[in-house]
Design goal:
Blueprint (H helix, E strand, L loop, with lengths): L34 E7 L8 H11 L5 E5 L4 E3 L3 H7 L6 E7 L3 H14 L1
Antiparallel strand pairs: 1-4, 2-3, 2-4
């Protein structure tokens, strides 16, 4: 009898980099932009679930610069609902928000305010 073909799971294809799972960014040259960084605590009773993630991503998409949101272990593009959900941020967890680009301070103020108002 021949050997059965190995079954490969797509779940193991993507490996984390040193900075986290998500390292995609817009075409803004981040090395030349001033970063605005703020730490917040997830206030949502059910964590960063679909509702808040959608609002945050839609709002972040209005800005030209890069917006990243990090947990202790992972980093996500703040403009991606899916990446925000994959963070799995729970209520009370600390997140670091980083904005880069010409509108970084405006983006940071708006995004941070969302965490307080949603």
């Amino acid at each position: 009898m021949g050997k059965a073909p190995a079954i490969r799971s797509s779940a193991h294809k993507k490996k984390p980099s040193a900075s986290g799972w998500f390292d995609r960014w817009s075409d803004v040259d981040a090395s030349t932009q001033q970063a605005v960084i703020r730490e917040i605590v997830v206030p949502f009773e059910n964590g960063l679930h679909a509702g808040p993630a959608a609002i945050i991503a839609q709002t972040a998409s209005r800005f030209q610069g890069e917006i990243s949101i990090r947990t202790r272990d992972y980093q996500a593009n703040g403009k991606s609902i899916l990446e925000l959900l994959i963070l799995g941020a729970t209520c009370g967890e600390h997140l670091t928000i980083e904005a880069r680009g010409s509108d970084a301070s405006d983006a940071m103020n708006v995004i941070a305010a969302l965490f307080d108002s949603l």
